[in-house]
Design goal:
Elements: H1 15-44, H2 51-83, H3 87-91, E1 108-114, H4 119-136, E2 142-148, H5 153-170, E3 175-180, H6 187-198, E4 205-210, E5 214-215, H7 217-229, E6 233-238, E7 241-242, H8 248-272, E8 283-286, H9 287-293, H10 312-322, E9 326-330, E10 336-338, H11 344-359, H12 372-400, H13 407-421, H14 423-433, H15 436-441, H16 445-476, H17 497-521, H18 530-537, H19 539-546, H20 549-557, H21 568-571, H22 579-585
Parallel strand pairs: 1-2, 1-4, 2-3, 6-9, 7-10
Antiparallel strand pairs: 4-8, 5-10, 6-8
């Protein structure tokens, strides 16, 4: 299907309207970035230009676009949440194409990709989703495919036992197929590619799941109905939120995500439109064009920057868009979940894998016939991980520079940068506080404000640690440093001090070095780097404390940093899907019959 063949129905945004939104967004982002660069130049050069100052300005210019884009996403999202009756349908008009009672006739594969996963948790998730689908009476159109890349014999035997158990229990109602590859060629993308080409012929659509994915039956049925009603859509990505967790780190992190994701996603969808994101899981894909058009190239050279692509999802999205099909995000909270990394070290490990994959995008910017917006998205994916080194080098050059700065403008720049950085969370927080029902779902105004303060401190401590990790990793990529495709840790019983020390000693050393430099130079502007120093100097105890399960259960018991799925108002109407997750987060688990 080509773009020229499309018919615009009454519930869709006319292309000219989307073009106007994109032009307007480009103009406000560009204007804001130029304003900030000019303001930084005035701050750095009150009495003349110097080399170190120019280097600082270049680094700042590299960090500014991501900060500004996030800020304007938040502003647009907040405006939609406060002043538009149905903000989701405004940015995602395809949602109005279904009402929820349309017959489902297209066969859909549930493709769950696994590699050396803890089989007990996989069993729990699959039982929950399959039982839920059977209760809807729409189970006949689904077929579960367990796509294994496991290379540990003991784990593969457990997977085989699980598949037989699922076939015995559900096989008469929902097809269950287990397939294990002998090699991990192409990583997860290669796993899915092999499935599409060899096993998916009987299915029209594919819902891609990770081992930690959980989706409600209603969410999956809605995705299928949307695809049936919109032949031009190739991918629909759900808004994935975190599941209840006993980990302090996961609990606070997903609370912050919940505050930031809605406004950010609404703002992004307002201009991305049919060039939306794909995050690699909890999404539905139209199989025919995906199989035909979304082949990933094997990059020239050796890993880490050559070979098979690690971060496959965004490239598959732009290839689907190149083929003439829309890629859409469904900006609705609820119904689509994942488990959040339980520790700081696991969060960093996942982030570095994404970093390596995104750095490979440098070789993909020139892919032929891409949409302009698609190329912008590739550049932004790269900028997501080049911003951290630029920020740290900005600080380094500032330490080496001896020229004076305008302190009043410097304070203004710091205030603006921090405000823009936290704008997505602050905007959603404001919208939640102004809505009685949403405020109650988070436990009330007092608890959400307390949680927001905790999360703000948490983010300010995590940010510099992650930035140092990413910077060291990026600098090591040209010398062969890589992280590869490894199994994610889904649950943790905590971190030992020795483990945290081995992973984060260099962060603390950098913090000590910066603190010593400021002390010997007797610089009065120490407050500018105080959050940075606090983060690095406390990195080891922070990692240990936030990995504590007892502390996490305490926070859950007092409903601190709680997400709506934990609130009694939600639990009373929630499906049985969530019972095992509630059982894990407190000493007095919820055991209601839903």
């Amino acid at each position: 299907m080509k773009s020229s063949d499309r018919v615009i129905s009454g519930n869709e945004i006319h292309p000219n309207g989307l073009l106007f939104r994109r032009a307007a967004f480009f103009m406000i982002v560009t204007t804001t970035v130029l304003f900030l660069i000019a303001l930084m130049a005035l701050t750095l050069f009150p009495s003349g230009i110097d080399v170190w100052g120019i280097l600082m300005l270049i680094c700042f210019a590299l960090t500014a676009p991501m900060t500004v884009i996030g800020f304007w996403h938040a502003v647009i999202g907040l405006g939609l949440m406060l002043f538009v009756r149905n903000p989701e349908a405004t940015v995602a008009p395809f949602l109005q194409s279904v009402v929820g009672d349309e017959p489902i006739v297209k066969k859909t594969a549930l493709a769950i990709c696994i590699r050396n996963e803890e089989v007990g948790r996989l069993k729990r998730n699959l039982h929950l989703m399959l039982n839920g689908l059977i209760e809807t009476k729409c189970n006949a159109i689904f077929h579960l495919y367990i796509l294994s890349d496991t290379n540990i014999p003991e784990v593969s035997r457990l997977e085989e036992n699980l598949s037989r158990e699922l076939q015995d229990k559900f096989g008469a109602l929902i097809g269950v197929t287990y397939r294990r590859r002998q090699t991990n060629e192409g990583f997860k993308a290669g796993n899915i590619r092999e499935f599409c080409e060899c096993h998916a012929a009987d299915n029209e659509y594919m819902i891609v799941l990770d081992a930690d994915s959980v989706m409600t039956p209603a969410s999956m049925l809605r995705l299928v109905r949307i695809m049936q009603s919109n032949a031009r859509i190739g991918i629909v990505q759900t808004l994935v939120t975190g599941l209840p967790s006993p980990s302090v780190f996961a609990r606070i992190f997903q609370f912050g995500m919940r505050l930031g994701m809605r406004s950010y996603t609404l703002g992004a969808a307002s201009w991305q439109g049919d060039c939306g994101p794909y995050w690699g899981h909890n999404a539905i894909i139209r199989l025919e064009p995906f199989t035909k058009e979304c082949h990933l190239p094997v990059l020239k050279g050796e890993p880490p920057l050559g070979g098979h692509i690690l971060s496959h999802d965004q490239i598959e999205a732009v290839l689907m868009r190149r083929a003439g099909y829309d890629v859409r995000v469904m900006p609705l909270e609820g119904g689509s979940y994942e488990e959040t990394p339980p520790t700081l070290l696991e969060f960093i490990r996942r982030d570095l894998r994404w970093c390596q994959g995104n750095m490979q995008y440098f070789k993909l910017i020139g892919l032929p016939d891409l949409k302009i917006i698609s190329r912008v998205q590739i550049l932004l994916a790269i900028a997501l991980y080049t911003s951290a080194p630029a920020w740290l080098f900005f600080m380094l050059f500032g330490m080496l520079r001896h020229a004076a700065v305008d302190e009043a403008l410097g304070l203004l720049m710091l205030s603006l940068t921090l405000s823009m950085t936290f704008a997505p969370k602050l905007s959603t927080l404001l919208a939640v506080l102004m809505n009685q029902k949403q405020r109650k779902s988070f436990g009330g105004g007092r608890k959400i404000l307390t949680g927001a303060i905790i999360e703000l401190i948490f983010s300010m401590l995590v940010g510099p640690i992650a930035a140092v990790s990413v910077t060291m990793f990026v600098l090591g990529l040209p010398f062969g440093r890589q992280i590869g495709w490894t199994t994610q840790l889904r649950e943790s019983d905590g971190l030992t001090w020795s483990t945290a020390f081995m992973a984060l000693w260099f962060h603390g050393l950098i913090g000590l070095g910066v603190a010593y430099w400021f002390w010997t130079k007797e610089i009065n502007a120490w407050w500018i780097v105080a959050p940075f120093l606090a983060s690095l100097l406390t990195a080891i105890p922070f990692a240990v404390i936030t990995a504590s399960r007892p502390l996490g259960r305490l926070l859950a018991t007092i409903s601190m940093c709680a997400i709506p799925e934990e609130h009694p108002m939600f639990i009373a109407s929630a499906p049985a899907l969530f019972t095992p997750f509630y059982d894990g987060i407190t000493e007095n688990p919820v055991r209601e019959s839903f």
